[in-house]
Give the backbone structure.
Amino acid sequence: WIKEIEEKLKEDNGSGVYYLEGFPFIITGEVSLMYSQDGKGRRVHLLLLVPNLDVAKKINLWLDTKGRRDYDGRPIFKISCRDFTAKMEEIDDKIEVIPAHVWTPWFGVFGSKSGFDSLEQAFLDKVNRIHAIETGISSDPEMNWRIKELNDLALVSFSDSHSFWPWRIGREATIFILKPEEKLSYDLIIKQIRENSF
């Protein structure tokens, strides 16, 4: 995918926004973490928002030391949520880690089958690096607003486009606000997520 992005998309002057036929993209990905913590098997999917291709390549180099990326659109690693988030911060503090579809039973951070009872339990001393959760199609904002721990976090919802099911693109959307005097950039998107201001 990186080779294809390099060949077909053009970055807008270091903004972290890449364009294909006038349509903007930022670099994203999803990983599946499967590991044991507190005597229980954990399965958590995390989204990554990445500032540019150079940072994506650094992430891939590190992931290649932990397992294989080449057999699935959402590769699986035996890394804890805490350790994964700490490494992303070390690689680049602009990387945004977002727990994906948080309520799905098997792969959500709050999933009943393999998740946690709180974000702090999952991310430990790196919970402060979590600025948003993804609702996914398993919940809506009203459901999440009932959980006090989530009150200050941004709620986002994105398409399941890591799989080869093109009709899933756009089934969910998060709308970011661009003021007339602002220029679309990765930094602007991350600022709105971190400040919960979109």
In short: The CA atoms of residues 178 and 184 lie 7 Å apart. The radius of gyration is 16 Å.
